[in-house]
Every structure is written in structure tokens, then in C-alpha cells.
Amino acid sequence: MEQARNEVLDWLRDAHAMEQQAEQMLSATAERVEHYPELQARLRSHLEETRGQARRLRAYLEAHGGDTSLVKDVTGRVAAFAQGVGTMAAGDEVVKIALASYHFEQLEIASYRILLAAAELLQDEDLRAVSAGNLAEEEAMAAWLLEQLPSITRQYLQRSETGGLPAKR
């Protein structure tokens, strides 16, 4: 099972980089949706969850002879920055933020389900606990976003139509 453990450590480094990317995206987007207070509050709340997820992953890696990957972490942050710049130029930025956030949550969910399957095979309770905890938070955020997509869309279109608050925010 040595090869499997090495693969899992690499997947954990990927997950840590993914959470670094999520932190960057959430931090940037939460500031740009001030006219959508519910969305902004939930993004900020999930930002704190995301920081906790990254800490749990880092602690697991350190406790099990691994470490985070600076290259993967930096690459994730650069990707998050590029995505943020791409949506900033869009007039419908808030809708694109909601869509991209939901999409990213699904990536995170799939990653943690993979890690859970690995934890079961390796009979690794620490990995199971970290993966299950992070998965629960990601599933909750994805469910919230999915439920809010119609409301965010309606709010944006109404503001755009009436010339009320800036359409892109």
C-alpha cells in the first residue's frame, strides 16, 4: 500500500492547492458583491470554512510525512486571480460569480469523495475525518448556492432593468 499512500499524499497536496485557490477566489469575490448582502455574507462565511479546510489538510500532511506544494499553491492562486479578472469585465459579474462558485464547489466535492474512498481503502481514520469534514462544508455551500441561483439571477435582472444599483454588482 506504499504506492497508494504516496498517491494519496499527492492528492492531498492537490486538495490543499485547491483550497488555496478557493480562498483567493472567495476573498476577491466577496468584496465585489456588496449589493447582494446574503451572497456576500455566505461567501465570507465559506471563506472562513475554506481556511479551516486548508489548515486541516496541511496538518494531516505534516503529521503523515508530507508537505504542501508551493508550486501547486501558487498555481492555484494565479488561476483564481485570472478567473476573478475574467468575471470583473462582465456586466453580469454577480451571476458569473454565483455560477463559477457553484462549479468550483462541485470540483471540491468530487475531490473529497475521492479522498474518502482512499481513506476507506487505506483504513485511515485521520484522512477519513479530514475528508468527511471538508466534504460536508463543501456540500452545504454547493446546496446553498444552487438554491440561491434563481434569486441572484432575478435580483441581477431586476437591477439591470430598472437601472437601480450597478448591474455588475
What does this structure look like?
The protein is elongated and about 60 Å long. With 169 residues, the chain is an all-alpha fold. It has 5 helices and no strands.
Secondary structure elements and their pairing?
Blueprint: H1 2-31, H2 37-63, H3 70-88, H4 93-122, H5 125-162
Helix pairs in contact: 1-2, 1-3, 1-4, 2-5, 4-5
Query: How many helix segments?
Result: 5
Number of strands: 0
Q: Which outline best applies?
A: elongated
Alpha-beta classification = mainly alpha
Give the low-confidence spans.
70-74, 76-89
- Helix coverage percent: over 70%
Question: Could you list some keywords that capture this structure?
Answer:
single chain, 169 residues, mainly alpha, 5 helices, 85% helix
Question: Could you give a short description of this structure?
Answer:
With 169 residues, the protein is mainly alpha-helical.
